Amino acid sequence: MNPALKETIAVLRKENSPKNLNAVINELVKSPLLTPAVFDIKGAPAPKPGPDGRVQLPKDTKISLVMLNSKDDKHYYLAFSDWDAVHAWQKTAGQGRQIMMLRFDDFANMLQKNQEASGLVLNPGENSLRLESALIQSVKKQKDAMLQMQKERQAAQIHPGDKVTIVEPTVLPDELVDPICTLLADAPGVGSAYLQIMIVNDTRKSYLLILDGPKDEKLFAAVAQAARPYLAGREQKMDLNITTSVSPLGQQGMRGSEPFYRKGIGRVIEDDDE
Q1: Among 91, 134, 145, 235, which is most exposed with the fewest C-beta within 10 angstroms?
Q2: Does residue 39 have a pLDDT over 90?
Q3: What average pLDDT does range 20-39 have in this prediction?
């Protein structure tokens, strides 16, 4: 039934704003969607549902999704947030269709392969929502980037028994530090930030960023995204680990070090003593 998705769609219909559209997309990427389809089982007898209600189709079954043509001769895939929306459309369409379940990634992948499709229409009818292919591809790209960052962070986690050595970098790279300072200027909870190099088991080297403030996963993700261009451009791959000043790792990283960022000052430049 996707109640959260239906609620965000209703809010968007009352006020069409980027914020409300973003709320719909956030629910859309994680919600199962229903779509009409035509199954060609090549003359084989229609398969019967199993005990769980699912139907196992023959391997050579051809599945064609029903598409909607717009007045300007564009073609869109159809998707429904819930069964009520499906039934309302079926009454208007005047004929029944087989209904299958797909997800946002499925539509994004189909749009990437099918250049004739212009996007996706959600809940077609008087209150339909049309999402163009470019928007869907952009959201899919951001979603994949976030998943990749999560995988990298999980792979970089420190396990019990690991040997951890923290050293100060000889030079702070501007391409890494400056974008982080810009982000932290809009993060009221962060008072200062430190950058170190962490070596795990004498083999795995990465940057360690310590933020003097509360743990904020959204801020962590934004900082990681800002650092990605510099990290990706290095010849030798180095990840960025982020922690807070209250963690044991953060306490170790701050000990005897000076921050590169302070709230109200921004980037701290240390002058050489003469």
Answers
A1: 235
A2: no
A3: 91
CB 134 within 8 A of CB 93: no
Q: Indicate the residue type of 204.
A: R
Buried b (16+ CB within 10 A) or exposed e, 236-245: eeebbbbbbb
Residues 242 and 225 sit within 8 Å (Cβ to Cβ): no
Q: Which of 63-72, 221-230, 237-246, 264-273 shows the lowest mean pLDDT across its residues? A: 264-273
Residue 261, both tokens: 């960022």
Q: Choose between 86 and 159: higher pLDDT.
A: 86
DSSP track, 59-115: TT-EEEE-EEE-TTS-EEEEEBSSHHHHHHHHHHHTS--EEEEE-HHHHHHHHHH-T
β-sheet bridge partners, residue 33: 102
Give the H or E element holding residue 13: helix 3-14
Q: Which residue has the higher pLDDT, 28 or 38?
A: 28
Element (H, E) at 196: strand 192-200
Chain centroid offset of residue 64 CA: 29
Rounded CA gap, 184 and 167, in Å? 23
pTM: 0.58
- The predicted pLDDT at position 110 comes to 93
Q: Which two tokens stand for residue 53?
A: 């209600």
Ordered structural domains, the chain, with CATH: 3-145 (no CATH), 164-267 (3.30.300)
